[in-house]
Amino acid sequence: MRNFIIDCDTAEDDIFSLFMLLHNKVKVHAITVVEGNVSFPVEVQNALWASEFSKRFFGEEVKVYPGMERPLVKDFKTVENVHGKGGIGDLTLSSNLKPEGKHAVDLIVELADRYPGELEFLAISPLTNLAMAYLKDRTVVEKIKKVWVMGGTINGHGNITPVAEYNVWVDPDAAKIVFNSGFDVTMVAWDLITQFTINEEWEEIKGLKTELSEMYVKFYKHYREFAMTYQKMKGNPHPDLITTAVALDERVAKRVEKFYVDVENCDCSTRGVTVIDYLGVLGREPNVNVVLDLNKKAFLEDLYSLLRR
Ligand SMILES: [Ca+2]
User: Could you name the domain of life of the organism this protein comes from (predicted)?
Assistant: First the structure.
C-alpha cells in the first residue's frame, strides 16, 4: 500500500484530489494545510469538511493538521476571485470535526521517521510546510520517497503574474529550498495542465447524476466560469487533480524529462518563475522530473472512475 500526505490550500481541486487518493485505496495519513488560495481558517474548514465527508463516503477519516499560515519570507495574497470566498465558489462548508493540535511541520517530520522510504508528499499547494520540515530535519530528504508538485511553468505562461504560477509564486523561497535539497521531485506545470481542461465533458459529467458528479458541478462552477472568462480557457482546469492522477496512474504523464530547475525568488517581475535548464547550459545535475505532456484519455478515465463511484 502506498503512503501519502496531501498538502492543501484547500479549494475545490484539493478536495477532489483527496477523494481521488481515497478512491484509489492509497493510505492518506494526513491532510496538512498551508497558506494559499483562500483565508487560512476557510482552508482548514474545507479540509475538515472533506475529512468528514470521506469518512462517510470512502470509509476513511483523514486527520487535518494546520501548518504554515504564511510564506517563509515575503507576504502573499489569496485568490478568492479565482476560487470564490469559500474556495468552492461562494458556498461555505462547515464540519463538526476539529483540527489536530500538532503542527503540520512536526507531523511531516514524524511521518517521515515512521515510514522511511515509503512516504509520498503530494504538494498541490505552496511548498512552505515541506520546506519548513526540511529546515527542521534535513534527513526528511532521504526518508520521503517522492514529492509530487503542482507548480511552476514549462513555457513561461503564468497565472498570478505574466510568467509565474501561483503556488510557486506564493512562496518561491520554499520552492527553491525544496527543488535544491535533493528530494525526488516531479513537477506538473500550470501551462501544461491548461491544455487539458474539462470542456464539453462538463455536460456529460452533469448527466452522470451521482453524488460526486453533482458535487463536482457545484464545487467547480465558479472556477470554470473564472477560467473561461478571464484565463482564455475552453473549460475548467485541474491543476491539483491532474497532479494527483500523475502520482497515482503512470499512464497520465505521457512525457517526463529530468532537468535542472531553479526558482527565481528575487523581488522582481520574474519572482516565482521556475527556471528550467532545458539545454543543460548551467552544467548542474538535473533535480526535477518535469512532466512535458499528458494523456487526457487516461486522466478522464481516472476522473470518471471517481465521479461514477
Ligand atoms: Ca491547491
Answer: Archaea
